[in-house]
Amino acid sequence: MHPLRNLMFLAGLLWLGGAVAAEEVLPSGAISRLQAGSDAEPAQAVLRLAYSPDGKFLASLHEDRQVRVWRTETGRVEYTLAPHRQALTALEFSPQGDRLLTAAAGPEESVSIWDAPTGKLLTKLAVSHQGATAARFIDGGKQVACLSPQGGGWFDSATGEQVRKSVAETGPIAISPDGKSVVRLLTNPMRLQVEEIFDQEAVSIMLSAGVQGPAVVDFSPYDGERLLIGKRGQPDCMLYRVYEYNGDVALDYAPLEGHEKQVQGSAFSADNLWVATASSDHTVRIWERLTMRPAAVISLDELEPTAAAFSPGGGRLAVGFQDGGILLWEVRRTLFPAPTEITEPTPEQMAGWWFDMASDEPAHAFKAVGAFCSHPAAAAKYFTGQLDFLKAGAAEADLQRWIRELDDNEFAVRQAADENLSDLRPGIDLVLRAALEKSTSAEPRNRLRQMLAAPMSQGDLDDAQRLQLMRCVLALETMSPAGRALLTRIAAVHPQPEAAAAAGAALERNVLNDLE
């Protein structure tokens, strides 16, 4: 190439934003980077991240009080909100995704609600002259729960009028998803207090001597049953379960151990399967909630993570950094590493993977999940053989013959067919329901209704079996369409409500992740 053309080519690269000929190197497992600002005016640290409910937009709050809204499909900034004068304390999309909420800890700003597609200001809520220390959408987005040092309460999100006044005062820093509970920071002694904001029933969490307060306080989304607290200046991080006991608010807890420095940001997946913590020790850890142990540790070398957010379906994890950038990871690829050395697994190998899926060390168990995911057809067949409730135990011809015999003229034949079919429940419930829909005769319809209505023994699972089953659901979630067919059967007929609910949630995540 002519030297002048070389210079023109390099100048063009610089004009496009300083790109270099070599492809950008991302940290291990990351799939893309979102970077705002420029060399002249670099973006400041990311403090908060929030996904829209459909996963198409990601909002980022930066240390300079800038809020940027990114289109996740293109990785470009869709718009930047008008700058705030005070530090922001909340950032959240409405459940419908049509509005974006910000809250500021200062006069004249308080809580602002913006049109999410355009960034146009819709309304402001005058919580108090000192602004809002915590705020979030509640009641399906119809109302906003806001708190300040002087109280606060619930406000109509459309009109801005106060609907209900809170009795909670002094230092509220987090609100539960239903808007009924608040976490407050109290002193003498230093403690956090979880209390009902309208009747002040409370339970305290004592902090160690010398601790300045929490660096992170985060409720689990939707249910609000779990509360993650990271201590300022320390690597200590605790996951509390908030529940009602004998009419009082109660807590139990589990430590999240492994970080070497302060946790600066955290995120729950919407289904509470995962918890992510971002630490100044240059790592992000993804914890399995079932075991409260790390499922993956993402090492970031010199990058310092400051915030995190899971996409609505849990398929992606966004992590914000001190340099103002944002990186995205595919969660399943990070958690479930795929082996490369096995072309077609043997029954013995799959038996070993199945055994490993019961491990209480998630990182070990998820290697087995990844191995199954790499062989979906063989895995689906193996899972069907392992999960007793999926076994029909009879040929299709026998099932159809017994269904026909439910309408036989002989009582003994009808009764024998009834008993044969009942013995195979719940694995054939889908077949029985289909037969009920097609049947026009009263006798077989009555028998089929009684069969399907009969309670099934739930068969208590031990801890290892429970882990195997839940991780089986995770593996099936990645296998389409064979995995989805099995998940549909588990959701419909599994005698364990927890397993049936997990399979149903996995099917819903499939839909959301297809959109992401």
UniProtKB/TrEMBL annotation:
Segment forming the signal sequence: none
Short name of any one Pfam family annotated for the protein: ANAPC4_WD40
Keywords: WD repeat
Record carries keyword Acyltransferase: no
Record domain Anaphase-promoting complex subunit 4-like WD40: where: 39-93
InterPro entries, alphabetized: Apc4-like_WD40_dom (IPR024977), Quinoprotein_ADH-like_sf (IPR011047), WD40/YVTN_repeat-like_dom_sf (IPR015943), WD40_rpt (IPR001680)
WD repeats by residue range: 46-80, 81-124, 256-288
PANTHER family (UniProt xref): TRANSCRIPTION INITIATION FACTOR TFIID, TRANSCRIPTION INITIATION FACTOR TFIID SUBUNIT 5
Protein name: WD domain, G-beta repeat
Source organism of the structure: Lignipirellula cremea
